[in-house]
Write a structure and sequence with these properties.
Strand order of the largest sheet: 1-2
Largest sheet: 2 strands, antiparallel
Distance between the termini: 16 Å
Structural class: mainly alpha
Radius of gyration: 24 Å
Number of helices: 8
Length: 195
């Protein structure tokens, strides 16, 4: 939460009231900060909340969840699940293939999954039904622009939240002829240690 205090002064002679100007906001006279907007946009268009995406979210907050804990949990809970149930079948499937599923841990050149492109398009496939009805053509275009910025930020090696928060903070005061400095391929954080 950000709190802005703006002083008011009155002139005794002319009875004029003067107040400090409102700091620039990404939404004029709006309550949401750039940080809140960035978080909402990233959560909606970048994170679709399966386990590995939740891991990314916690990782951005500095909380690491070791993947080995998942295997230990699966082994412990398989014994508690009745044979033949859907949960037992899912656990058996994963446990039988655990060596193949974790091969990437032994060789840094092996990717964690077998299809980088599939992981790039998965958010679009998951979100397709959510975005099928954006409300209007204008809303659909806005959603497409936000998704493009987020994916471009990722492809340029930026954390989408840090990128959007910085851009949304700078946007109200950015000169129109310098707007391309805020595009993901040109972007440099305003304050690298604080973004």
């Amino acid at each position: 939460m950000e709190r802005h205090t703006r002083g008011k002064w009155a002139c005794n002679q002319c009875e004029t009231l003067v107040q400090a100007p409102v700091p620039p906001q990404v939404i004029d006279k709006g309550i949401p900060t750039a940080g809140l907007l960035a978080q909402v946009l990233v959560a909606k268009y970048a994170d679709h909340l399966p386990l590995y995406r939740q891991e990314r979210i916690f990782g951005r907050a500095g909380l690491e969840i070791p993947r080995s804990a998942v295997h230990q949990w699966m082994l412990a809970h398989r014994q508690k699940v009745p044979d033949g149930s859907g949960t037992a079948k899912a656990l058996d499937y994963s446990l039988k293939r655990w060596e193949a599923l974790t091969r990437y841990l032994d060789d840094g050149a092996v990717p964690i999954d077998n299809n980088w492109v599939e992981n790039q398009i998965r958010p679009w496939a998951l979100g397709r039904s959510n975005w099928l009805f954006a409300g209007s053509l204008r809303s659909g275009r806005r959603a497409a622009a936000v998704m493009t910025l987020i994916q471009s930020a990722k492809l340029n090696g930026h954390d989408p939240y840090a990128y959007l928060k910085d851009v949304l903070t700078r946007l109200p005061t950015q000169k129109n002829n310098a707007i391309d400095e805020l595009l993901p391929h040109n972007w440099k954080p305003a304050i690298p240690d604080k973004v």
